[in-house]
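Need a sequence for this fold. Nothing fancy.
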C-alpha cells in the first residue's frame, strides 16, 4: 500500500528521499490504526470546544490536565496530545518519535 509512495519519495528527493522512505516504512504497520485515531479525534472535535475536547479525552484517553482557557490556536495541539496518548497506550514500547511521525502522516492524509 505504501510502497508506491515510498518509491515516489525516493525518486523526487534522491538520498534525502531514501531517508524519508525509511521513516515512512518504520511507521507503515501502525498507520491504518493511527489514521483511525486521528479521524476519530477530528470527528469528536469539529469546533475544538471545551466539551468536544473533554469528550475526546473520555473516549480516546489523553492528557490529565486541560485548561479551558487554552486559546483556540493551541487546541489542535491538545487534540494531537490526546491522539498521542491513545497511541502510546496501544503501543507502549513504540518510540514516541515514531508515533508522532505516524500521526503527522495520518493527519496529512486526513487534511491534505
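Here you go.
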Amino acid at each position: 500500500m505504501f510502497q508506491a509512495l515510498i518509491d515516489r519519495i525516493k525518486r523526487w528527493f534522491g538520498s534525502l528521499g531514501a531517508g524519508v522512505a525509511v521513516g515512512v516504512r518504520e511507521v507503515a504497520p501502525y498507520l491504518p490504526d493511527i489514521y483511525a485515531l486521528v479521524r476519530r479525534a477530528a470527528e469528536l472535535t469539529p469546533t475544538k470546544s471545551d466539551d468536544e475536547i473533554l469528550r475526546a479525552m473520555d473516549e480516546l484517553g489523553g492528557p490529565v490536565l486541560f485548561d479551558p482557557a487554552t486559546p483556540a490556536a493551541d487546541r489542535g495541539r491538545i487534540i494531537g496530545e490526546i491522539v498521542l496518548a491513545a497511541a502510546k497506550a496501544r503501543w507502549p514500547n513504540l518510540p514516541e518519535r515514531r508515533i508522532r511521525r505516524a500521526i503527522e502522516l495520518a493527519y496529512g492524509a486526513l487534511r491534505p
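For context: The mean pLDDT is 86.
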